[in-house]
Design brief:
By secondary structure, the chain is mainly α. It has a single domain (7-52, 65-431), classed as Up-down Bundle (Amino acid/polyamine transporter I), CATH 1.20.1740. Helix content is 73%, strand content 1%. It has helices spanning 2-35, 39-42, 44-54, 67-78, 81-94, 97-122, 136-139, 148-161, 164-177, 182-198, 200-229, 234-247, 260-275, 281-286, 294-323, 335-341, 347-377, 382-396, 403-427; strands spanning 125-126, 132-133. It has a two-stranded antiparallel ribbon with strand order 1-2. The longest helix has 34 residues, at 2-35. The radius of gyration is 20 Å and the shape is globular.
């Protein structure tokens, strides 16, 4: 019965992402791209330059959190286990062509991310904690009559904020690789999540600003070393990616084959999941920034997707394609470590550290967003109920079923958030401005 339920949920997930989620994201992304003159492409160098300048800048405002802490809390949630496990699963299921659609979703998703952050900053409200409350739960009230859609969105965001998939992958990897009792690992990780999550975005941003740069340096160095060793294979792999993106891929080795629609939906849904594109997560986080210019803070979202999709995700899938392990029947949590193990025999010893650096920042970032959503539903009881729910959910889904089941749940919730948020952004599309010239007045 349990397997039949998740088999049905998997079919529902495939259908909605293939026929509703992917077309909606691509459609709105294309609209914003043409409206802005492909802002995310032409202005990316300037966005990166402005980001580098902001590293040394200091804001005088005492309300809100540092723009950089908001940024690192944001990509702390984006750059996670999904970047090294979920995207590899997309290739195992949809074939190499899924990488192309991941790039498409990332490119178009940059402006969807920009739009939701922009609206979050534009319509945020001050709170009693010397900060701001913003996100879809605020601007959706301008779109739909009454608050019922905003409350529905908040409840879904609470579910999304308890990252049961990433939590399970972290505990499983640490327990099995370092031979530590699984119960001990689960309890310690849960305590660490609750401690940092209770401190709000300010504490999450400080932790993520240390963990994420450390991971990027280690992972990029290892990936470049392997790419250099296999530079002659890169042209062939790229050709395979573009070819199978439109034709699917025949069965080979342990790979069962894929259709065009399966390839497309796998690439889009994994890009959305790893980058949290359109789910409203980033809008809530960036709304707490000290930055008062919506365009400047929203541009951070474009840079975040660039790092998430075009660096970390791309490196991950190229590693499994270069080494050929994507064709083998390897557990989703181990496929990248097996690929790296061909060049670094000791990788099994530090792989759990990689997973922790990625996963912990993700869990605490989305957890803080879920807590904000719970407070929107009920200032008095929301946080308490959310904490109890998180404890129960983390414990249950650490043991029941498979990690893939947890991923299906997160994917379906993310799809519902995306669908509601995209409707809101489309209706409010005329309120969104695209510019990298921050000297202009709003």
């Amino acid at each position: 019965m349990f397997e039949q339920l998740f088999s049905l949920l998997g079919i529902v997930d495939d259908y909605f992402w293939g026929y509703i989620g992917a077309p909606a994201l691509i459609g709105l992304g294309l609209y914003f791209s043409f409206k802005s003159g492909w802002f995310q492409v032409l202005h990316l160098p300037r966005i990166v330059k402005n980001f580098a300048r902001s590293l040394a800048s200091k804001k005088d405002s005492s309300r809100g959190v540092s723009p950089l802490h908001a940024f690192f809390a944001s990509i702390g949630g984006c750059i996670g286990v999904g970047n090294v496990v979920g995207v590899c699963t997309a290739v195992q299921i949809g074939g190499p062509g899924a990488v192309f659609w991941m790039w498409v979703a990332g490119l178009l998703g940059m402006l969807i991310k920009y739009a939701e952050i922009y609206l979050g900053i534009l319509y945020r409200v001050k709170n009693e904690k010397n900060s701001y409350d913003g996100g879809p739960m605020i601007y959706l009230q301008l779109v739909f009559e009454g608050k019922w859609v905003a409350y529905l969105f908040s409840v879904l965001l609470c579910l999304y904020g308890v990252e049961i998939y990433t939590f399970r992958v972290i505990t499983h990897n640490i327990a099995t690789s370092w031979h530590i009792n699984n119960y001990i690992v689960i309890v310690l990780l849960l305590a660490a999540v609750l401690f940092v999550g209770k401190g709000g975005l300010r504490r999450v941003g400080k932790v993520s600003s240390v963990l994420i740069p450390l991971f990027l340096i280690l992972f990029s160095g290892i990936a470049f070393w392997i790419f250099i060793q296999n530079i002659y294979l890169i042209p062939t792999i790229l050709a395979t990616i573009f070819k199978s993106a439109f034709t699917g891929h025949a069965a080979i080795g342990g790979f069962v084959g894929s259709s065009f629609m399966l390839t497309l939906s796998q690439g889009v849904r994994r890009a959305c999941y790893t980058g949290d594109i359109g789910v409203g997560y980033d809008s809530v986080i960036h709304s707490e920034s000290k930055e008062v210019n919506p365009r400047k803070q929203a541009a951070f979202g474009i840079f975040g997707i660039f790092i998430d999709t075009f660096i970390v995700c791309t490196f991950s899938v190229l590693l499994v394609l270069v080494t050929g392990v994507w064709k083998d029947s390897i557990h989703e949590g181990k496929v990248l470590s097996v690929a790296l193990g061909q060049y670094f025999p000791w990788i099994d010893l530090i792989w759990p550290l990689f997973i922790f650096l990625l996963g912990y920042s993700t869990v605490i970032s989305v957890f803080s967003v879920g807590r904000k959503a719970a407070l929107f539903v009920s200032q008095k009881y929301g946080a308490t109920i959310y904490f109890y729910y998180a404890i129960v959910a983390f414990l249950i889904f650490s043991f029941v079923g498979e990690a893939s089941h947890n991923l299906i749940i997160m994917s379906i919730v993310g799809m519902m958030l995306l669908f509601i948020n995209i409707i809101g952004m489309f209706i409010l599309r005329k309120d969104i401005r695209f510019s990298s010239d921050y000297k202009e007045s709003e």
